[in-house]
């Protein structure tokens, strides 16, 4: 999202194509995977060959079992190594394109930033063709019917767009106004309204479920269940979308959290939720919780314990710059190189 935010803040459009791979984990070719291990310089290729070969599977239907069959492709799912093996398999996929390609397990996205939507669509189409060729060479397949394209930008700029069409060969990719990516629903203008709507829907549903069983839950159980089943929705990736919300959307989130706290403390629906109530359940308000999470990110970056891709977006201010900065009061302060909406 940082790349998209940065492009929009620079006055550009950002086009995205979300690739949908058909049965990605089940179609990994073992021989190709082992060859890639050799190219990586791994010294345990024979071990992986043994791990992947001669695996058997059976099918059970209505207490009837099929005869066992040898698994000739795919990575073992449900194991710790499964996702890692798949990542190794697609690790060289970005080399096949001439634009940004982000990989997260089998969720892959192409991103192109630019001034003109037609040129962005053309660049995405060309790179999508390259991706498809790479997938065919590696015995993977792209589900064009479920692959989606979206153009990000400000509301004002998006009103002027009437021709954004991404193709893969002769097939037209479905153009959408919002996409679900890694559990978040992203709007074309990154307003976050869809994210808030989903949070309220899911949190409200789970809170109703807990109310139906409140008579068998003590205070500790109510707090534990709310933290695990509801508060997680407020926390998930909040540092990337919360700051862009309207005041009304932020109020809606706080109202939902207040309902959760009333359930924990067994208060009536008109009870005011303030600092004392938050302290009683050892929780922070939605806005303060977001600040806490962002500060944790900054601390990890400062300690250089965060992932490298996060640390690369920041520089340390030199001693000379620090002396010239009248507002700086501590050493080793960080500043973002580009968009600074996350921290």
From TrEMBL:
Residues 1-186 form the Reverse transcriptase domain. One of its GO terms (biological process) is DNA biosynthetic process. Signal peptide: none annotated. InterPro entries: DNA/RNA_pol_sf (IPR043502), RT_dom (IPR000477). Coiled coil: none annotated. This is Reverse transcriptase domain-containing protein. It comes from Meganyctiphanes norvegica (Northern krill).
